[in-house]
Specification:
It is built from 13 helices and 2 strands. By secondary structure, the chain is mostly helical. It has a two-stranded antiparallel ribbon. A hairpin with a 1-residue loop joins strand 1 and strand 2. This is Nitrate ABC transporter, permease. Keywords: Cell membrane, Membrane, Transmembrane, Transmembrane helix, Transport. Its main location: membrane. InterPro entries: MetI-like, MetI-like_sf.
């Protein structure tokens, strides 16, 4: 079975289990009888796809995500490189960033309402804050983990500060940067939906909360499914872009590793060098070690001393 078929089978099995539990009104510890069935959610989704409100909410949420996330990506990468490369920047900005970083982005909603003249700008600010710190921290750690040998090599060839930044720092830190971007886009979706529920006028989060207030549970699940699909698509886009820009990295193919025979993957001991001395061969007979270079004299001396000892005993 291919990987795509396996993934499709897992999703189908989850939907089938959902339909089974809700269709039979199973109430064993969890109250599945309160949940809408898969067919109810699909029917509601089909009805909303034919109307303009669904697409308006979708466009508003995507616009807020892209605006806040792109701003966070640019400033997060720039700030991470600056803090990692400059001791002065680390001393000036480091304490402030570490104080603000533990504050949840959704807790800044009152600040955004007071700070910005419109709710739209406040939601973009919340989205930016949510994605900024994962990108900043990942970039900072990736830049600090670079080996100094590459930088010294560029300096030896006459490269300056900007040449080092463009040919060593940024390419070397790209894997870590895209790791932070992948985390940031997921956190951005969490916070933008929460901000839309609190202070938004349109968007997927706003519509989901409105459905909850009027007890339209199939509509709530339509919003949840929409959020999940949008988050998956944007995360996949970030991951594909990262793979495209880091083609020089070695990739591990799970299929190739599974098809490789076990004997081929076994680690073999290295062969000894040609100049290494060989161990002495065991003697052909007897239990003692083989004769050495002076074995003749030693054997004669041992034989003579043995005969003298026997003669003394006879006397």
């Amino acid at each position: 079975m291919s990987r795509y078929a396996l993934r499709a089978a897992s999703v189908t099995a989850a939907l089938g289990l959902w339909q089974l539990l809700t269709g039979l009104d199973v109430d064993v510890w969890l109250r599945f009888s309160q949940f809408p069935t898969v067919t109810d959610v699909a029917r509601t989704l089909a009805g909303r796809l034919s109307g303009p409100d669904y697409w308006t909410d979708l466009t508003d949420s995507l616009t807020r995500i892209l605006g806040g996330f792109l701003l966070a990506a640019v400033l997060g990468v720039a700030g991470g490189v600056l803090v990692a490369r400059s001791r002065l920047a680390e001393d000036l900005l480091g304490p402030l960033l570490e104080i603000v970083r533990p504050i949840p982005a959704i807790a800044l909603v009152p600040v955004a309402i007071l700070l910005f003249p419109s709710n739209e700008q406040g939601i973009v600010f919340i989205t930016f804050t949510a994605a900024f710190f994962p990108v900043l921290v990942s970039t900072r750690h990736a830049v600090r983990a670079l080996t100094p040998v590459w930088e010294e090599a560029v300096r030896t060839m006459g490269g300056g500060r900007w040449r080092i930044l463009g040919s060593v720092v940024l390419p070397g830190a790209l894997p870590g940067v895209f790791g932070g971007l992948s985390v940031g886009i997921g956190v951005s979706w969490i916070c933008v939906i929460s901000a839309e529920m609190i202070s938004g006028q349109y968007g997927v989060g706003y519509r989901t909360w409105q459905d909850y207030t009027v007890v339209d549970y199939p509509g709530v699940f339509v919003g949840m499914v929409t959020i999940g699909v949008l988050g998956w698509l944007t995360s996949t886009a970030v991951e594909l872009l990262g793979r495209r820009l880091t083609r020089w990295l070695p990739r591990t193919s799970y299929g190739a590793a599974a098809r490789t025979p076990r004997a081929a993957r076994a680690v073999t001991a290295p062969a000894p060098p040609a100049s290494a001395p060989r161990a002495p061969a065991p003697p052909a007979s007897g239990t003692g070690p083989g004769p050495g270079p002076d074995s003749g004299a030693g054997t004669a001396a041992g034989s003579g001393s043995g005969k003298d000892a026997s003669r003394d005993q006879l006397v």
